[in-house]
Amino acid sequence: MVSHWTRLDVVDNGQAMRAITWFIPALLVSNLATAYIVKKNSTNPYRDMTNAMLSMSRPGGPFVVIIGDSLTNNAHFPSQICGYRTINMGIDGAKASTFIQYAEQMSLSNLHPSLVVVALGVNDAIQTGGSDFKESLELLLRNLPRSPLALTTVFQNVPSSDTINDEIRKAANRKGATLIETEKLGILTSDGVHPTHASQPTWETAIVTAIKRGLGCSD
Question: How far apart are CA 60 and CA 85, in angstroms?
Fold first, then answer.
């Protein structure tokens, strides 16, 4: 006999799957209307994000979501941290505004990460001088599921990076989020944005350490 709670879980997962399936064409229309189309060099970001949300909706235990740009997309995070699955939602070239639509869909699909890491900002600094970063970040955070948060500062020495980091710190303080400070870690870049091969593990370790802190675990 299926228990009451098991039946609820089955219904919730079915609803999430249907909501995500409905979301695919709706997302394309939304992107065309709002110019949120995201360019990615070798893969389809809509497919990647849909697959990520499908992974969240499947049984498999609690999970952590890492939202970010190419640094996140190219990172080699452990598949699990302290027993929590890690779901990489990195999109090359992403800004804070890129993920507003995905945040909305995570909430609409009743997905509940144990922690959401937001590692964004450098593309906002480079592409727009951070002109709308504060508003975009606030809207992104407001639309995410009501999960604990961790926000990452940018380490790159690019114009407006100080402004971007100020806004990230203020947002972390407002939301009671774990703050991941990266700008004083001595991370070297190969092109002004991406870490060198030798520095990449430093950035990844900072993220993983903060995830453990946010989850309250050490293993």
Answer: 8
